[in-house]
């Protein structure tokens, strides 16, 4: 079973001690995207990425400093969003780290697919960002089915803990026999189940931690997962959707 996650916007470079770095799976593609980004000025970045001038300038500086061949930090330890804070990989044992590297993948607009050991550098590029790479009008068209093919190369079960913005690069190409399981964390409010973004991100991170700490490689044990207000809701779930509610 492979669990997929969205990246975080913020990056704080950190590495696992005593573990080597892996070269990006889509090395050539990442270089091609970076080549385009390198041509942008801060004003272009601010407009295209819809960010403020400070973020645009920091992004511009990171683009200029980017060197894909330098090993700076491991991907799993470096993303700094709420999901990754709840994974809390800094206290993983050696066995946890090795299991994570086999069973966890982070999707990325720049890198395509990252394993926990992939060497990354500071960047900002959301998958939905409207940039044109050669004849491709956006990143979805650029990546085509490459990410899908990479994830399903061994016919694994894919457990989706990524946002729709990122999981779209997989779901657009799913075939009838592909095993793709969505996970949703919903809160009942005013008689309707809704996603509360902050709680959902925390729960996604906690589920990844649960999977790694318990070395889970199939769906059934996930039904025992609970966090904060969330527990498995059998009535709302089915074969392709695991629903956790309050």
Explain what you see.
This protein is of the alpha/beta class. The protein has one domain (2-245). The chain contains ten helices and eleven strands. It has helices spanning 27-37, 42-49, 53-65, 75-78, 82-87, 94-103, 139-143, 146-151, 164-171, 197-213; strands spanning 2-5, 73-74, 104-108, 112-114, 119-120, 158-160, 180-189, 192-194, 226-227, 230-232, 241-245. The strands form two sheets. Strands 1, 3, 4, 6, 7, 8, 9, 10 and 11 form a nine-stranded mixed beta sheet that branches. Strands 2-5 form a two-stranded antiparallel ribbon. Strand 9 (226-227) and strand 10 (230-232) form a beta hairpin. Helix 2 packs across helix 3 (53-65). The longest helix has 17 residues, at 197-213. The model has no long low-confidence stretch (mean pLDDT 95).
């Amino acid at each position: 079973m492979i669990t997929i996650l969205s990246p975080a916007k913020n990056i704080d470079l950190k590495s696992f001690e005593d573990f080597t770095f892996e070269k990006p799976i889509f090395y050539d593609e990442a270089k091609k995207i970076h080549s385009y980004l390198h041509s942008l000025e801060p004003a272009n970045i601010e407009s295209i990425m819809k960010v403020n001038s400070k973020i645009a300038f920091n992004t511009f500086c990171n683009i200029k400093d980017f060197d894909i061949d330098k090993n700076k930090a491991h991907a799993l330890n470096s993303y700094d969003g709420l999901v990754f804070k709840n994974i809390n990989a800094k206290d993983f044992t050696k066995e946890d780290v090795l299991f994570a590297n086999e069973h966890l993948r982070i999707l990325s607009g720049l890198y395509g697919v990252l394993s926990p050991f992939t060497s990354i550098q500071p960047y900002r590029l959301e998958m939905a960002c409207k940039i044109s790479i050669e004849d491709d009008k956006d990143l979805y068209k650029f990546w085509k089915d490459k990410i899908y093919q990479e994830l399903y190369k061994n016919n694994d079960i894919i457990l989706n803990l990524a946002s729709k913005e990122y999981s779209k690069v997989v779901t657009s190409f799913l075939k009838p026999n592909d095993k793709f399981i969505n996970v949703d964390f919903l809160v009942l409010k005013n008689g309707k189940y809704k996603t509360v973004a902050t709680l959902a991100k925390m729960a996604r991170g906690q589920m990844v931690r649960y999977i790694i700490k318990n070395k889970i490689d199939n769906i059934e044990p996930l039904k025992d997962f609970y966090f904060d207000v969330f527990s498995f809701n059998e009535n709302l779930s089915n074969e392709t959707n695991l629903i956790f509610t309050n």
